[in-house]
Amino acid sequence: MSSKILIVGAGAIGGFYGALLARSGAEVSVVCRSDYDYVRRHGFEIDSHTLGRWRFRPAQVLRQAGDYRDCADYLILCSKVVADIDRVGLIREGLAGKTAIAFIQNGVDIEAELLSAFPDRVLISGLAYICCNRVAPGRIKHLAYGKLTFGALTPDAAGLGQRLGDLFAAGGADCEISRDIVASRWQKCVWNAPFNPLSVLSGGLATQAILQSQEDFVRDIMQEVCRIASASGHPLPGDTVDLNIERTRHMPPYKTSMLLDFEHGRPMETEAILGNAVRAAQRLNVETPRLQALYALMRLRELQIRENRAPQ
Amino acid sequence: MSSKILIVGAGAIGGFYGALLARSGAEVSVVCRSDYDYVRRHGFEIDSHTLGRWRFRPAQVLRQAGDYRDCADYLILCSKVVADIDRVGLIREGLAGKTAIAFIQNGVDIEAELLSAFPDRVLISGLAYICCNRVAPGRIKHLAYGKLTFGALTPDAAGLGQRLGDLFAAGGADCEISRDIVASRWQKCVWNAPFNPLSVLSGGLATQAILQSQEDFVRDIMQEVCRIASASGHPLPGDTVDLNIERTRHMPPYKTSMLLDFEHGRPMETEAILGNAVRAAQRLNVETPRLQALYALMRLRELQIRENRAPQ
């Protein structure tokens, strides 16, 4: 019997990875709000630089998780992690029987909210290393990368995590199981913490230009993230900063997710990426003046956006 | 015999203070480039919230200092301190006989360039605490404050500095002689270093909003400036940060000079205010991670402006 999967938050990430799972033979349903009408009628059109073009027609297209009339093996949360999205509320009504919860989301220290809301569920934490954009309603363009990393958050999650990874691999994803998914989150934060805010605060520079102009500053920010990771008991390899710099040097000029959100007037993952890192540092007595500065500046930038939007 | 004064860089600051000197009876000429035609015909119209409205007709209106056919007692440089303005070149041809050089300019560590170019001249360093804008060609609106601080940079400058201060006072300026003008520059930098870049990097917030949202961050930046001042042998009073915060709290919401430059597409005094502070800190082995972050971010912001302007 094929696995039943409910994707909650089927934007670019959720739509793309849902489409991969469907290719593996799973029965994939989606909760998608903004493109509901279009996706219900036409499904998703996927255009991947590695896997080609195809149409993904979900088993059910829903406005909210509570409308799901089945019992999913996996509910996969793919929303952004921002203040005005209630992650627990989004998924609660979509859970039944032994549904395991997985999330493919950015940020550090984002597990506790779900662990405490659903103490009896299997929880799997996931990270996507991908560049894919929603270019029109229901149309997703996969531009680069695509690796997934999953890790068990609850003691009983390892087997289910492995099985989910196998499904993704069968659908064409490069999928890896991490034995320390919390370290993997810090590892991803090493890149996100400098490049996401710098791309916004610079007024829209691509990663290449940032690196060429301010490599020392980028390295210093990365080191601060490494120090928090170590203090939190999840030390990263000694060459982490060098590898991130080298990798970025050989990436094509790239607009970060935060910059894309900024340019489209969408909320940014400032708290998930920077706020949580700064709060962890404070809890652990790690000095992170540069991360604090970036966080304060992003807060000011967001305040200005709100002021600009409010009627004068 | 009335004093002869040549103002070089007669924008808002130069025009306003030149007008005050003319009120004191001095014979004031100006070098002004962008508004040359208008000012030559009509002079300046000054509209001051404390001193009223009047017209200031300079003795000579010149395109460049070399056109001055007299021997000034004082040449007062009022240009901005930015990379594409050659301060030495701007004034060299306007000097004759015993002309003393004064400058009313922002920034720290901006003295050396003039001291080494003109080793035999009397040099007076000045700071303006004023909010005044050029609202149209030759029209200057004085909105708030206005205090000047002068100090001698060369051993023989004290008497001439005092006399210049007296002239300004006679013209209606609140003018003070500083016994340590280098400390006064650091003192002003305590305010400029946070509020100027934060107003730009936030996308245009006024000082009030910055302070209300990120007071701790502002204080930390101010403390870094105080530490550089101390290390450079010009310690500031212990209550400097508190006083600056209190003063800002009671200011009307205020757009910084850097924000005004940014909004009008003019070069910003990033190097004079932040770059020089960071370089002084490095020379003196003072840790200033927040100033470094602001400097790096302003450099990125300026890079983005240049990229945006360049043909694609």
CATH architecture of the largest domain in chain A: 3-Layer(aba) Sandwich
Please mark out the parts of chain A with pLDDT under 50 across 5 or more consecutive residues, or reply none. none
Write down the oligomeric state: homodimer
Give the C-alpha Rg of chain A. 19 Å
Q: What's the order of the H and E elements of chain A? A: EHEHEEEEHEHEEHEHHHHHH
**What is the count of DSSP helices of chain A, taking H or I runs of 4+ residues?**
11
Beta-strand level of the residues of chain A, as a percent range? 15-25%
Average pLDDT of chain A works out at 96
- Cα end-to-end separation of chain A: 59 Å
> What is the makeup of the main sheet of chain A?
10 strands, mixed
Descriptive keywords:
globular, 312 residues, homodimer, alpha/beta, 2 domains, N-(1-d-carboxylethyl)-l-norvaline Dehydrogenase, domain 2, 11 helices, ten-stranded mixed β-sheet, Rossmann fold
